[in-house]
Amino acid sequence: MSTPSLLPQGPADEADMAEAIKVTQQQIGTLLVRARKSIAVRAASIHPDLKPMGFSAMMLLSRCGSMHQVKLAQQLDADKAVVSRLLKQLEELGLISRTADPTDGRAMIVELTPEAHERYESTQAGARQLLFDRLSQWDVVEVLRLAELLARLNEDLD
User: Residue 118 and residue 124: Cα distance in Å, rounded?
Assistant: First the structure.
């Protein structure tokens, strides 16, 4: 399916910018809904009881490696108590391990179990293949431009 060009036919004005932002917001919303669905499916493929927030925690741990429980809560932008309950669940599912920090016995270090890491990477490979199948139909310059624009948006949203 081809998307018609949304570019203004003449010089852009404030109304054109407002419309462009509206269309962009709608497209980001559509992308977020699809991403949430994808995360739910990928989480269920790791374990039927794994919820999307647990998958997000696994994603951070896979990307960043082991980390303090408090830092994980900050990265997830979630309350420490909520993350504590989440990690208890993940531990019961055999997806993470928690150990006391040898330098501070009160702090807990969280890491994925080897099996969880393997399962997570398997979902990543599937998602990457799906994205490859979709974007390989594009020109490589368009794909790189998309990556560049997404990076810029992510930086501006920080």
Answer: 10
